[in-house]
Write a structure and sequence with these properties.
mainly alpha, 5 helices, flat
């Protein structure tokens, strides 16, 4: 089960059961295991690593990666708004990008996901308004 970050916290996003909706092949804790220094890698090792990453990305449903980007954009906006001197331009850019992606996926995802993204967008817009006044 995936989650979507909003200023209210993490929201669980249920998945539909289908062959195309499977868990990613890399778990977050695996990503922190010894990451090789690419400067120390041979060209063949680097090419092998790139091919492995490409394969893992191809095995992950696009919507899952897009939802991770949505989460990141929401967090980016929230971080820029949460400091003593908010960076309104950076926050607005992240919010606008989030809105563009949200509009694009609205009819392609489950209503619960769409509603969670809309809620996050509305909260970020209100936070931007509060920070700008």
């Amino acid at each position: 089960m995936s989650t979507l970050w909003t200023p209210e916290g993490e929201h669980r996003i249920p998945r539909e059961n289908s062959a195309n909706n499977k868990e990613p092949s890399i778990e977050p804790e695996q990503m922190t295991e010894s990451v090789p220094n690419i400067d120390d890698m041979s060209e063949e090792e680097l090419e092998e690593m790139v091919n492995k990453v490409r394969s893992e990305v191809l095995s992950t449903p696009a919507i899952q990666i897009i939802l991770n980007h949505i989460s990141g954009l929401g967090e980016l906006a929230a971080i820029h708004l949460s400091v003593d001197k908010p960076d309104l331009n950076s926050a607005r850019l992240a919010i606008d990008c989030l809105e563009a992606i949200s509009t694009t996926i609205k009819d392609r995802v489950d209503a619960q996901i769409s509603d969670a993204v809309d809620t996050m967008l509305n909260q970020l817009r209100m936070a931007w308004i509060n920070a700008s006044s």
